[in-house]
Amino acid sequence: MKALYIASTGMSAQERNVEVISNNIANMRTTGYKRQRAEFEDLLYQQITRAGAPTSDQGTMIPAGLEIGSGVRTVATPRVMSQGSANMTDRELDVAIRGEGFFMVQMPDGRTAYTRDGSFDRDGNGNIVTSTGYQIDPGITVPGNANGIAISPDGTVSAYLDNDSIPTQLGQLQLARFVNKSGLESLGDNLFVETPASGPAQVSVPNSDGTGNLLQNYLEMSNVNSVTEIADLIAAQRAYEMNARVISGADQMMQATSQLR
């Protein structure tokens, strides 16, 4: 009975949906995290009677065909790249992006990764790095005698050296933006890499080309809404239960058939 298979695809799709929702909830407090959503599509149809098929020599035809679907599948889990709220931290190397840009990060294998997580720090050589120790791109080094690091909205990094009354510019933060942000590939560690679907990175300084500006002493929180996620979770659970009922109903029909004398 095809109903068993069709309902099983529905249960499988809702199981994947719950996995996506649970990952969103788990990352509610992850800096710069962008929530995902599951998208579905129906499977191939069996054409038993095709719409428009002739029914007589006089040109009459069937107005609506008879076709039976094969179920559903999860086709994509795109990220919702909306802006998260800014949370004050009072750390001078915490930076939030207000706009569409991404910080660029130098990976150990030579690739460039991208992140919305601006919780930066300094390594033993004074290089500004991410929380996992990867240097930002372009690299900026803070001297050991630097006092009071300042990061302007346009990405200029400066600091007072020793007892200087005039700040010294240390470097310039740059941001990258993409035509299709949802096409980026997730690496974990709050990092993304570009793909053919995302298009190449368009690099510019903050406050230009739509990349957005920077906000020092703040971090961008995740854009996960707990109420929305719980509502989606309840809907997924109910859809799973209804597909399970279809399987139970189909099983009872098969059992009744097998008991015929």
From TrEMBL:
Localization (cell) = Bacterial flagellum basal body
Q: Where is the Flagellar hook protein FlgE/F/G-like D1 domain?
A: 96-159
Gene Ontology cellular component annotations, sorted alphabetically: bacterial-type flagellum basal body, distal rod
Pfam families noted in UniProt: Flg_bb_rod, Flg_bbr_C, LlgE_F_G_D1
- Alphabetically ordered keywords of this record: Bacterial flagellum, Cell projection, Cilium, Flagellum
Task: Report domain Flagellar basal body rod protein N-terminal positions.
Answer: 4-34
GO biological process entries: bacterial-type flagellum-dependent swarming motility
Q: Where is the Flagellar basal-body/hook protein C-terminal domain?
A: 216-260
Q: What coarse category fits the chief subcellular location reported for this protein?
A: other
List the SUPFAM superfamilies: Flagellar hook protein flgE (SSF117143)
Under the subunit heading, UniProt states:
The basal body constitutes a major portion of the flagellar organelle and consists of four rings (L,P,S, and M) mounted on a central rod. The rod consists of about 26 subunits of FlgG in the distal portion, and FlgB, FlgC and FlgF are thought to build up the proximal portion of the rod with about 6 subunits each.
Family the entry assigns:
Belongs to the flagella basal body rod proteins family.
Alphabetical list of NCBIfam families matching this protein = FlgEFG_subfam, flgG_G_neg
| Name recorded for this polypeptide | Flagellar basal-body rod protein FlgG
List the source organism: Devosia epidermidihirudinis
